[in-house]
Request: fold
Amino acid sequence: MSTEQITAPGAPSPSGETAARPGPRTGARSGRGPRSMTTRRAISFYVFAGPWMLGFLALTAFPLGYALWLSLTNSDGLSNNSRFVGLDNYREVFSDPETMSSLARTGVFTAITVPLTIAAGLLLAVLVNQPIRARGLFRTLLYLPAVVPPVGAALTFKLIFDRDSGAANGALDALHIDGVSWLMDPYARWVLVSLTVWGAGNVMIISLAGLQDIPRELHEAARIDGANAWQTFTRITLPLLSPVLFFQVITGIIAAVQSFLPLLISLDPTPKGVTAVPEGNYLFMIHVFAQYFANGRYGYASAMLWVLFLIIIAVTFLVFRLSKGAVFYAVDPEPAAKASRPRTIGGK
Amino acid sequence: MVFPRRSAVYMLLVGALVLFLGPFAWLLDTALKAPSELRVLPIHWWPHHLSLNNFRDALTQIDYLGYARNSLTIATLYAVLVTLASAWAGYGFARLNAPGKRMIFNVLLSTMMLPQILTLIPTYLLFAKLHLTNTYMPWVLWGLSGAPYLIFLFRQFFSNMPKELEEAAIVDGCGQIRIFWRIFLPQSWPVIATSLILSFSWTWGDFVAPALLLDDNHTTLAVKLAYGYVNEHGSPLWNLVAAGAVMYVVPVLALFLIVQRGFVTGVATSGLK
Reply:
């Protein structure tokens, strides 16, 4: 499958149509009138895009709108006598200390796990890109944890960090240190962080693909110029890899925000057990869940969802802005195709 | 970049392997221990009474095969539908033009960035109102509408196919649907495989959607595993948890090892989009 000449989607102000490959234009050659052909193609396009568009409207846009409407009411999801309360829920989101602290905690969690995962994944990618024996095996084995479904991974970490039978306390005991309750405060957050970083194989594979796209000549030229390994890495590898890493930052943030691992490593991993999540792991989404399913505060919880939605848009936008200049994009091989900023990666 | 010393590379890699594979070892270790070995100090690093009883008990303590069947049904249903629907939409975005296409494509790209959790709860409320909870309909509907990421994968693949394929067919009087079905789809098996594998493993691993939409009898293995193995006092039976998790994870790992290429291409491509 061709992975080159693929363009970066989802820019915040996507001038979107990815470069240079509009589908075939009107089939003026086919002998029929070009106009009727164009119309038929347009109809065909909507026939093909239609199911997705309907799905998007019904299962994405409508639910978001429904949540927006709920967020302006005091709905509890059950009784029908909910009433319009204006922006009260939003005011409460910003004045409720518990909500604000869960939001801050989510920010800290993201700020720790995203760079850590990317750094670990990048280091592994560089290592398994070296000319060593059995590197295919190393790649496969290091990627394995990333394939494990979240529930499987969470249960595995619960076993390791169990107070009585876990390996973590077993190791401490061997060192004559008293074991601790890892799955409780204040340790639970570190279990969560390590569980998240355990999946760094994803970053490794994606970065590895990026590393392999870097022309060998660049490294050789650098070596001839007397650059040492570190200089080559920071001056050549990192800049050329930056679009890939940048993409990892965005997807990492999105994944961190919607992580349900805090619930899965808590003592009662059911939607109703969200209130049992230790405070250190009580992230924003867990709080949203608690409001919906433990407290039945649908209106308030919907307002929280919408605040999160806006924050994610803002953060994504901010990251895009900050990365301008820091992220290096190869020059578009077909500059005539787009007047906008070239976004083609790895075009050859 | 070449590391100054190769032995340093091996040392780092072996260290990483210990950290990354250690958890698997402990999972298997716990699954093979007798229950009595769990609460001893110093802990048993290796099972002293090796037995497969935990696996047998894990299958009977909960209706393991029943839940596995639920997972399998949902995952297969979703994977097949979403792959077809995504190929269908991807063809439109790759090969056809229409007014408004650009805007629609931009919407598609931005939904790829949208955390699904945002829409999941309101969608659940919607499904609950329509009495679709405890059915597989939500997955059918999700499947039929395609997944933005997979649509994008198919679009990329179809965009790179030569124009002549289509033009010849048009001259022969083929409609777009036939062109898609007879010419483009059969050529795209690498993407189809990637799409099936990715969507199957997403659904097999998903926790939140089934936890919300399905009750205890209809739910998937992932959900039941997370809380199902407890004794009469509600404390977890770690041996059974371990054995159950092994049986849940191993098929996924096996699938990965068999079709590594599909997995890795899909994931790696996602970084280069």
